[in-house]
Give the backbone structure.
Amino acid sequence: MKILVLSPIDEGSLEALHREHDVASAIGAGASSLPSLAADREVFVFRSGVTISEELLGSAPKLRLIVRAGSGLDNLDLTDARRRGIRLVKIPGPSAQSVAELTFGLMLDLARKISRADRLVRQAQWPKHELLGRLLFEKTVGIAGAGNIGSRVGELAVAWGMRAVGCVEHPDPAVAQALAHKGVELADLDEVLRVGDFVTVNLPLQESTRNLIDRRALSLMKPGSFLINVARGGIVDEEALYDELTAPNRLAGAALDVHAREGEGETSPFAQLPNVVLTPHIGSMTAECQHAIGQRLLEIVSAFGRGELEGEVRNGELLL
């Protein structure tokens, strides 16, 4: 099959694709050059950092399958893909552990002021007594979006001796039971925000979640609490968050792996705040995660080529 790879993927998996298929790369290509690259392609493979627009879909009349090498779909025109009858598969499973571990790492960084301490020591400062931190033990993590990733955050938190409270879009007894099995209590979003010493955002970006963590939501959080966003920048109102972080006796800090504006040359509005940890959307960037996604991609493409996609896909992968 003729495949267009629009985002970097695991190198070994990419080599395997090249051995079996006609693979073209659009990695780093400008938006104006994408239509010509897509013209004869049957399969798109993409991640974050590239936009699969109606225009791009329209430039690929032979396109039959889109594979999201991950989980987020906010950079794909889903409505147009559905209208054109294009099959869509995402690969969310391997990312959960990777993103959950980063979430936990960011909580530790905020609690113990690790990034701030590192910067000061590099400046030949030794402000040990200014770096009084906090334990995670016996604190509460509020999980806004206790799905595949969020529930794993909860499991890690419980293992650390924390209380985990999460919310989901469609709560029911079965969901509550599944979360309880992992040690996560089910609540609504407002309760998650109120009780969390650390609040993690693990939601997909869609119309119902855009700016969901707004000024009102942030006002519910405890004074001295922390916000961690590893989901999508558009879910958190950054202006409101900035105000909360700079107001007296409000939020103690935030860690942001995702941002309203991302990419080379973009400067975060939080760059000068010492109580904010910033990372460049690296939640799924572990060797193990990328390898697993790449291997799953090979299985999906192979099954599609044999006409056996429905028999291959797992729960939560096939969308169209």
About this structure: The two ends are 19 Å apart (CA to CA). The chain has a mean pLDDT of 97. Residues 287-305 form the longest helix (19 residues).
